[in-house]
Write a structure and sequence with these properties.
It is built from 2 helices and 6 strands.
Length: 133
């Protein structure tokens, strides 16, 4: 039996999106893109990516905590990763069943995108209504 085969390269990290005591797992690849749909637990992400059990401990995990800013439009969730000195290290924006494909640098950037997204959706709905009339 040949044990010289190289193990698959770890080319992603896990993002733990915490809501109180519960959490889901998002996966971010090395290019920075986040998969649109979360996993219920780490093992699902590992199996989906074909990561051997002996490499699970080598996969980096970053923890993001849900926050509830007043300016957040309905239907969105925001998760923030903070440094101990209260410095924002990144923000994950989630709408409905889909996670945005990248990490925002600040909470303000994520809120702006959510507000813009909501404005675009409302404008599109109004246009469809106008066309139907």
């Amino acid at each position: 039996m040949d044990h010289s085969e190289a193990s698959p390269e770890i080319n992603y990290k896990l993002l733990r999106l915490a809501r109180g005591k519960r959490y889901v797992i998002a996966v971010q690849d090395q290019s920075g893109e986040i998969e649109p749909h979360p996993y219920w637990e780490e093992t699902q992400a590992f199996f989906a990516r074909g990561t051997p059990i002996e490499q699970w401990e080598q996969v980096a995990t970053e923890v993001f905590t849900q926050v509830f800013p007043d300016a957040l439009p309905s239907g969105f969730s925001v998760f923030v990763r903070m440094e101990r000195r209260n410095i924002c290290l990144g923000v994950v924006l989630w709408r409905g069943a889909v996670i945005y494909p990248f990490i925002f640098p600040t909470l303000e950037d994520a809120l702006s995108a959510a507000t813009q997204d909501e404005w675009i959706r409302e404008a599109h709905a109004k246009t469809e209504l106008d066309l139907a009339c």
